[in-house]
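Q: What structure does this chain adopt?
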Amino acid sequence: MSCLRVHARRLPWCRALYRTPHLRLFHAYTLRDGDANVTVNVGQHGVQVHAPSYGLSEPYELDYVWLRDACRAPTSVQASTQQKLFHTSDIPLLKDPSQLLEQVPRPVELVYTTEPELVVRFAREHAVENAFTRLVSPASVPEATAHESRFRLSYLTRQVHPAQYRAHHGDVLTLGQYWDAAMLRAHQRPETVAWDAIKANDESLLRMLTALLRDGFTFVHAMPTHPTGSDPGPTRALVAALAERIGELRHTFYGTLWDVQSIASSRNIAYTNVDLGLHMDLCYFQNPPRFQLLHMLRKRVQGGESMFVDSFRVAEQLWVEDREAFDILASTPVAFHYENAGEHYYYTHPTIELAHDVEAFAGPPHGASGMPRIVAVNYSPPFQAPLPLHAPGLRTRKEREAFYRAFEAFASRTMSPELMYTHALEEGECVVFDNRRVLHARRGFDWDANEASGEVGRWLKGAYPVACTAG
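A:
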């Protein structure tokens, strides 16, 4: 297609314009900002943007419906909430998308304020109306008018460029550094932050959260062990305040706060003094808690050290060393349940839960191994139900034998001393960890000699904060 260069006086908002007059019906022309190295081809179906200095090394087409839908003008989003005032389905879908535009010589322009902006003018004849408002409050629907959408090039390229898009929305999966015990020691990790610092300033909170996303766990020290209560008020344990620095407290059938104490006739193995193997909490939930806090309120026992394993590192080992086992664990459901004290919970998850292209977790593989992105690992032997015989990958004896082998390959690696980090929590110390990534365990300890008197020798206060991550 040949183009005729138009020599017009240079306005501050338009550096140069190229237009094809005989295709004016479709508004086909080219806009160029030479100083910013931006080229926009305006066509029948949309605009094609080429902006190497903004990260678009190859031209990318944005259709007119998408542009109208992405508009942030005051008539498109509510001023205080910045939420959309119409639905995507309210935008007309035309056989000729260029009909959405105003029939003027330049319905699309490239202007310059503090940076290049794309201005798109939409026709009054095809104005966007909120269908729900038209149905329930027709009198409040404003009269249709022409509409102007303005898009900064940085905004558009952020939507187009995958790396910019993920960075803008906080791609937390890129922060994780899978570890073994030697790596943690070499880098003087995991991170430990003082409670007073977290309470006083956001910089210390950010330091703790960054370490949490990087390593999957971190410690808070010098945290007062009184008060110890669970109910809101002045007697509530401080683990609630720490959890609320991360997000809202999540309520489960254990309550918003809960106690881990060794008691007789317990209905939960965590409330005994025996070895508690590596596991994750509440895998029988559809959405198990992402983060967990355990604050040591009292320690009058010998033993009871805590152990942690990065399950993502275990999965990475399988990806490199036993790809068949990795694939089986990523595609075979495992059942988890809790049936006790009138409570019945049940859900199935794959052991290795992969990110999918339709999720926000989608992105490039993690690290040099090329392993696909992992959203979570689901591993909790104490609460594992019988394998569901009707489920894919478990219907025949041969399939189950393949799963048993893969599951053993995973389990045996979790108990590798090289991968295990051991730490004896002291009174006033709180561990914060990613319950969907880091396996936790506890070594057995001597029984509380004062139990009969009502005193408890080992007491942790727990909480599950609800925090927004890359899930």
